[in-house]
# Entry
Amino acid sequence: DALQRWDPVEVELINTRRDGTQFWVQLSIVPVANEKGWFTHWVSVQRDITERKDAEQHFRQAQLDREERVALESRLIERERIQDELSYAAFHDELTRLKNRGYFMARIHSALSKGTTQKPGAATVLYLDLDRFKYVNDGMGHHAGDSLLKSVALRLSECIDPTAVIARIGGDEFAILLTDEGHQEQAIETAERVTHALSLPTAIDGQQLFISCSIGIATLDVQHTTAEDLIRDADVAMYAAKKKGRGSWAVFDLSMRQASIDMLLMQNALKHAITRNEFYLVYQPIYSIATETIVGVEALVRWRHSTLGIIAPDVFISVAEDIGVICDLGQWVMRSACREVKKWSDAAGAVTLKLNVNVSGVELNRSDFVTQVAEIIAETGFDARALQIEITESVFLHEPEIVAKTLEDLRAQGIRIALDDFGTGYSSLGYIDRYPIDAIKIDRSFVTRMMKHERSVAIVNSILSLGQALDLAIVAEGVETLGQLDQLRELGCPYAQGFLLSPPVLAEDVLAMLMTSKRQPLP
Ligand code: C2E
Ligand code: CA
Ligand code: CA
# Structure
């Protein structure tokens, strides 16, 4: 007990056995002192701790594993999230957050493949196209177009059964899939609800827009083998709905398919019609009722196709608007008409023959429209003061400010503006004092009804007095009978146009009429 001991020193180290294998030892080294308290020697105790070390190692590994597992887990979660995002993107439309075309097709496909026999009626598609979306998109910009699409998506989601699939499947095209066993009534009811919901005005960029949609309905049937087949039929029905007028729906039937082939054919043919020189102009004279002379002509476009034959503008103008060739066509019409009428005016002894050209709303919304007209005038040498463009009030439906500015700019060049088909819109009177209008063309329907209905006489009469008060030139359109002409003369209508006076004729005939029958009395 004379021994004095200090605290032991403990170390753990790897020792090597003679055979070269290694083992863990714990070495406790204890310093020992003599009675005077001086250090004399060490006592060392060795303990094999390999087992414990292994256990520790194991434990550490386990801990590491856990960390790794957690890390791995969060990596997996992240990957899932990315996958979710990707599959969300794969199945959804980014702009409207509705389902996209791919998802929609897949759902039809799964309805198709239920069992080996197809299930007629297992799915009904409503194919929906916004009417005149182009006006908003081209006229007010893509931002407004996008807002409109989003608001349409919202309205659809609000008014459609939650079990239905709603998708945006193209620019301004949406589709609805009903999978409740073939209830066509349900589809029609849905179509009614949608057309109503979309007919309510939408505020976009501080403006009230009135839009509408056309809906085609097609139900899965034995003749459908792919999802595309069903969609195509719904699309075909949609075109039939468009023909009925804006805001309509139509249910597919087989007779529509032929018509749709024609439509495709026409769209395709129309794209090449200008370069292939297939358009030509006819001119319908406009007469002064008082002096019984031709005061001007209205240029009307015709399309002669090698196999489709001669096609009327009522048929192809809206298609030209749809596929975006209307601006090129409009320019062609304007240039050709200015060139031709200038030639006649010169030939007929420098009379200033007035030229009326129809301009589509799509053209008016183009920012370069005025410049293009100015170029045509400079190029052809046509007197701008003799040019009058005819617009319908539908051009004011979207971006009225842009249209008003365009009209003012045209007027600054001396060009006059006529409101065509007057009386057929909603609030024609409203446009007259708000926009720069020089002339009004009373729609043919009033002239036709004039003989039978006192009301129509009263309307024509009030348009005439309005014209007088506001210093507008009034033209009665579609005069077909002497009775109508007499009545118009009696009412004091200054100008008339119609089959009775002259149908639209070829250029050479106009010149002949100008040369020979300039002073010929009206029939
Ligand atoms: P609109 O501007 O109202 O043209 C008058 C239409 O009435 C012409 O039909 C003309 O042939 C027809 N018409 C003239 N007098 C009579 C009549 O006494 N009785 C009847 N029943 N019809 C008469 P068209 O040439 O088939 O043109 C149809 C529409 O196509 C035009 O209606 C116009 O909106 C459009 N259009 C024609 N040419 C052009 C064009 O170059 N550009 C644009 N954007 N549209 C055009
Ligand atoms: Ca016209
Ligand atoms: Ca007209």
